[in-house]
Amino acid sequence: MAEDCNTNFLQPSGFTISISRENYPKLEFFAQAVSHPSVDVAATDMSVRRARIPYAGDTVQFGPLDITFLVDENMDSYIEMFNWMTRLVNQNQTPAGSETDIPTEADIIVSVLTSHNNPNRRIKYYNCVPESVTGIELNTQSGAEVPLTFNVSFRCTAFEID
After folding, report:
1. Which of 5, 75, 76, 112 might form a disulfide with 26, Cβ 3.0–4.6 angstroms?
2. Is position 154 within any domain?
3. Whole-prediction pTM value?
């Protein structure tokens, strides 16, 4: 049997995002771009005579997951993200047992689509927590045809690709 040979390239616009729909519905709908995190394994060096021999490290480190969101005219997507960020800080400063029902971390799922817009791969990022949110620039010199966006950097404990 011949090996499956896919000659179609991954389309940069072929994806969907799911972020805890019951808690963050606006973020899911307005996601515009995703930058998959880097994966690093810090090598260690062992000195042997006059040389250093690199050995693979024992810890995998993930870079930030960066997502760009569109800003709707009610600013619902931005407000939803702002509320998530402030809830993180507030829950870290309140006594145990007084937290809200909304969790401060969420799994984020990016579904990668085929050239026919069918789900092909699924990347699941675990225990994501927002780390930073960029500002929004309102400018009278900008044209109305360019939508406003903001970026969010998330830290995740791990990810897997199905």
Report:
1. 76
2. yes
3. 0.82
CA distance 38 to 64: 7
pLDDT in tens, the chain (162 residues): 455 666 778 888 889 999 987 888 888 888 899 999 999 988 888 888 888 888 888 888 999 999 999 999 999 999 999 999 998 888 766 655 555 567 789 999 999 998 888 899 999 999 999 999 999 998 888 777 788 999 999 999 999 999
Q: Give, for 30, the enclosing helix (H) or strand (E).
A: helix 25-30
Amino acid at 46: M
Q: Within a domain: residue 1?
A: no
CA distances 145 to 141, 142, 148, Å, are: 12, 8, 10
Kindly state whether residue 28 falls inside one of the protein's structural domains.
Answer: yes
By the 8 A CB rule, do 77 and 26 touch? yes
The residue count of the chain comes to: 162
CATH number, domain of 157, equals: 2.30.110.20
